Amino acid sequence: MDDAQRYTIGELSRRTGLSVKTIRFYSDSGVVPPTDRTHAGYRRYDVASIAKLELVRTLRELGAGLDEVRRVLAAETTVRRLAETQLVLLEDQLRLLRTRRAVLRAVARLDEPTEGVKLMHKLATMSDAERDRIIDEFWDGTIGGLDVDAEFAAWMRSAKPALPDDPSTEQVEAWIELAELVTDDDFRRAVRELWEQQAAQRATGEHAPPVQKQEQAAEWWALFDAIREAQEAGHEPGSARGREIAERGAALWAEQRGAADDAAGRAELVAEFGKPYDERMSRYWELLAIINGWPPHPTTERQTRWLAEAVRAL
After folding, report:
1. CA distances for 195 relative to 153, 190, 253, 296, angstroms
2. Residue 125: DSSP 8-state
3. What pTM, to 2 d.p., does this model score?
């Protein structure tokens, strides 16, 4: 092309594929001003204008605003930097769209009323920090101000829901249920009472049930998996399989107590696991497992009582 050649706005439209209206808009906005004008006042553009318009079209298709386009053309930023910025924005938009898709699938499956749909969308589109804050507020309200085992409390607090960028419908439903659970006043009171009992035992010097440490959690989950399998297979607590599991449970309990596996320790285990069990606490961890893609480890009152009976039968 001839650098001295001038083109009318119509010729520019034919060469770039942009409409005359769009080119006139960019021209009036100062993005691609005319190179000069004819005596009659008609705009004329040079070869560089064609290149600029091609770049503008590409940048706009990538989602750049007019101010960003002006900065690129003025060499205040580079196309690479602009692309990196737009990429981050696009990734955020894609994450939001994937989450909305999962919410819509959940809505279609659950047939929620209008208010339920609003809540589902609000909860599902929260940021990681907002989700963490809900869990932190739950533990602040149930543990805050109590003298409890600090290490165990810190471990309980550390498990946070991390909804993936492309969540499944099940994960979205699990997060919504978890958010509703931790904001339920009755559940909060029940959890608070458990921590108050531990704090009272520590204050009086009364022997409190040993606190499960983080490294022991996997062993307990494996034990309750074994109990579940034994129950499904029809094994009674006093059976040979029941004795095997009871021995494992008693040894783990002793390790957790930091003491010998003796009659006193086994009596404590029976007393502790024979208590009424609030399965909402197990559901809390089950929901976290679904959201975070952890192996499922639900625990039920039926399983805790089975273990207590198996140890009692030793």
Report:
1. 10, 9, 20, 25
2. T
3. 0.58
